[in-house]
Design a protein that fits this description.
By secondary structure, this protein is of the alpha/beta class. It has 14 helices and 15 strands. Bound molecules: 4'-deoxy-4'-aminopyridoxal-5'-phosphate and glutamic acid (GLU).
Length: about 400
């Protein structure tokens, strides 16, 4: 038989989703494993949002919607962007699709011609590089170290740019690093993008989850020159505990959203209508439950970071947003734990799962194999037990 698509065949499966599936399978087999792999809030979707979804079904919001999403939801998204970020968008600037993941995909589809380069500061979410390859682009990564707070600098960005550079893909605050770019840092990065005529895909899905009283600046809020080249990505998954509803959105110049709209009209058609009804309640109604979940994440982060930094052999920075901790395992490299030489994060995550019964994600796919990622979107009870297990696992291995 003729070969399958070379582009599709070369795609690496998502490690975050694969590990979450492995964890769920182990649990179903009755194994007492604790999971910190998937970046998915452990809270249920708030009741008023669930009821809005049910009402949507009962009131026959069960038909096709416009490919870009219902006008009501797009209006409500404009309201949320104005309230939270001071951004003025019209419904024509908004496109709703099936999760922020799909929004990123269609945004790249609208921007990339074969061979265009997409600059990705790493560590970055595992999906970015694969997705760029899926649309025929070339991912160009710019690594940042822990000492650099895992952040891109304008100098490094400038040095990576050539005639093929087309897009900067920036996630703020970041999965997996938890670091937040300040307004000044964003302005310096955006100035380089304007100078070299780069588009900016600004993935702001974790903007509602910031700690220690920090405030958020959207890339699109940095003036007209920046905004017209910014494709803002957001969604309801993280802030509203709605991962399974699959609703994300894009805010961008109409020149871009109209191309995306055509693409959607021939691919997904539209995102689920009842999920759009639920998402409308999420973004339009008062945001008190978002705040109570954020506070819970902050408490969990504080506990996790303090505990981790008290355990010999590992350490971490204190994340400023999102719900991930990057645990530095450099001190364990070259050591033998439970009969296995630890060469990198993958070795560590394997042994920790098998012998420690804790599931974490090696950051190899994120761009740094000296770290593993813990999600603290897990219950305090699980976080406490997971860190007890880490302590015992390392102590009994003689670390
Ligand atoms: N961007 C980042 C950085 C993420 O971590 C995620 C989590 N899956 C997404 C986008 C996509 O979220 P969703 O598709 O659930 O809206
Ligand atoms: N973004 C989350 C994570 O990084 C969810 C899983 C995924 O889609 O990758 O774990």
């Amino acid at each position: 038989m003729k070969e399958l698509s070379r582009i599709a065949s070369a795609v690496q499966a998502s490690t975050t989703l694969a590990l979450d599936a492995l964890y769920k399978e182990m649990k179903a087999r009755g194994i007492d494993v604790i999971g910190f792999a998937a970046g998915e809030p452990d809270f249920p979707t708030p009741d008023y949002i669930k009821y809005a979804g049910i009402a949507g079904i009962v009131n026959d919001q069960t038909k096709y919607t416009p490919a870009v999403g219902t006008l009501e939801l797009r209006r409500a998204i404009c309201y949320r962007l104005r309230e939270d970020m001071g951004l003025e968008y019209a419904p024509a600037n908004i496109v709703v699709s099936s999760g922020a993941k799909h929004c990123l995909y269609v945004a790249l589809r609208a921007l990339i011609n074969p061979g265009d380069e997409v600059i990705i500061p790493t560590p970055a979410w595992v999906t970015y590089t694969e997705m760029v390859k899926m649309v025929g682009g070339i991912p160009v990564t710019i690594p940042a170290t822990e000492a650099e707070q895992f952040k891109l600098t304008p100098e490094k960005l400038e040095a990576a740019i050539n005639d093929n550079s087309k897009v900067l893909m920036l996630n703020n605050p970041s999965n997996p690093t938890g670091m937040l770019y300040s307004r000044e840092e964003l302005e310096a990065i955006a100035a380089v993008c304007v100078k070299h005529d780069l588009y900016i895909i600004s993935d702001e899905i974790y903007y509602g989850l910031l700690y220690d009283g920090r405030t958020f600046t959207s890339m699109a809020a940095l003036g007209e020159e920046v905004r017209e080249r910014t494709i803002l990505i957001n969604g309801v998954s993280k802030s509203y505990a709605m991962t399974g509803w699959r609703i994300g959105y894009i805010a961008a110049d109409q020149r871009i959203t109209s191309v995306i709209a055509k693409y959607l009209s021939h691919s997904t058609g539209n995102a689920s209508a009842p999920a759009q009804a639920a998402s409308m309640a999420a973004v339009y109604l008062p945001q008190d439950t978002v705040e109570s979940m954020r506070r819970a994440f902050e408490e969990r982060r504080n506990y996790m970071v303090e505990r981790m930094n008290s355990i010999p052999g590992v350490s971490c920075l204190k994340p400023e947003g999102a719900f991930y901790v990057m645990m530095n395992i450099t001190k364990l490299l070259g050591k033998t734990l439970y009969g296995r030489v630890i060469r990198n994060a993958d070795d560590f995550a394997d042994v920790f799962l098998e012998k420690g019964l804790v599931c974490v994600v090696p950051c190899t796919g994120f761009g740094d194999s000296n770290f593993v990622r813990w999600s603290y979107a897990a219950s305090m009870k699980d976080i406490t037990r997971g860190l007890d297990r880490l302590e015992k696992f390392l102590r009994e291995a003689g670390v």
